[in-house]
Design goal:
This protein is globular. It is an alpha/beta fold. It has an eight-stranded parallel sheet with strand order 6-5-4-3-2-1-10-7, covered by helices on one side. Strands 8-9 form a two-stranded antiparallel sheet.
């Protein structure tokens, strides 16, 4: 039986127009909505290491226990290709240090998982160079995390290893027991892949997945010289679970058949049908729980 968790991005307020809650308010809201676990955003306005030094983490741990909430994952934000045009700035070292700190916080909160990303494509470096940067950075992150009994989860949202087959290749190259996949349906659905097959193949390597549903909206650019329109990439807008084009039933079926037993987190981190007011965010969060009861 797959577990459910609420991703803190749902109420982080980092997306323009959405209601913004601080960490404690988010925890209280998550509990009131019926969630038993949370995925904490590891940056402001939530769990930034700058705001939660070692002497503040005990209080947070007690607060979580008092609310009866488990931390399923700390959501780190990395781009190991960042700064390719400025090699004099040790941007990967800074990010590895950040991940090491998150691993320490995770251990202190009783959480065994830290989410990371790979890297966005950078014109200043070749494909293979960027791939190797990500592999080396993930290996070092996994080493530090492993010393604290924590797993590093790679989410498939950046350019490097964004496709599920490439993500499998990346994990093989990293070759660390505590570096796993946090594979989501969003990217392969947009890629046009078979979600059931991708989920089934990825499931043995997964420790977490995050869901959100979307609709496509066609876009066109007017060409006055032709008195016609040119087709451009579709816009994608978030909608409540079950109302979009992503075939989550096939995705979850593939996960089950592949033996996945981890959490399913829900996020709202893009323009959402109905707007960004708390009432609409609450409605969508409740809809997620209702949807999961049907699958």
């Amino acid at each position: 039986m797959m577990k459910t968790a609420l991703h803190s991005v749902s109420y982080a307020g980092v997306w323009p127009g959405q209601a913004r809650l601080g960490l404690d308010d988010f925890l209280v809201r998550a509990k009131a909505l019926g969630f038993d676990a949370v995925m904490l955003m590891a940056k402001r306005p939530h769990l930034s290491p700058l705001d939660y030094p070692a002497d503040a983490r005990g209080g947070l741990r007690e607060r979580l226990a008092g609310l009866g909430l488990h931390v399923a994952c700390l959501a780190g934000y990395t781009d190991f290709c960042l700064g390719a045009d400025r090699p004099d700035i040790p941007s990967r070292e800074m990010q590895i240090l950040y991940v090491r700190e998150l691993s320490q916080i995770a251990r202190e909160l009783g959480c065994g998982l830290v989410r990371v990303f790979t890297g966005f494509d950078h014109a200043a470096a070749s494909y293979d160079q960027q791939w190797n940067w990500c592999v080396a950075a993930l290996q070092e992150c996994a080493r530090y995390a492993g010393e604290m009994g924590v797993t590093i989860g790679v989410q498939n949202h950046h350019d490097v290893a964004g496709h599920w087959q490439s993500l499998l290749d990346l994990l093989a190259d990293v070759n660390r027991a505590n570096c796993k996949a946090m594979f989501d349906a969003w990217a392969p659905a947009l890629h046009g892949d078979d979600l059931a097959e991708a989920a089934h193949r990825m499931a043995p390597h997964m420790v977490h997945t995050t869901v959100a549903d979307y609709v496509r909206r066609p876009r066109f650019r007017y060409l006055p010289q032709l008195v016609n329109f040119a087709r451009e990439s579709d816009a994608v807008r978030a909608v409540p679970m079950g109302e979009g084009f992503i075939d989550y039933r096939a995705f979850f079926r593939g996960l089950r058949e592949g033996g996945y037993q981890g959490y399913v987190a829900y996020e709202m981190c893009s323009p959402l049908r109905g707007g960004g007011a708390e009432e609409n965010l609450d409605r969508c969060a409740r809809r997620f729980l209702e949807y999961m009861e049907t699958v």
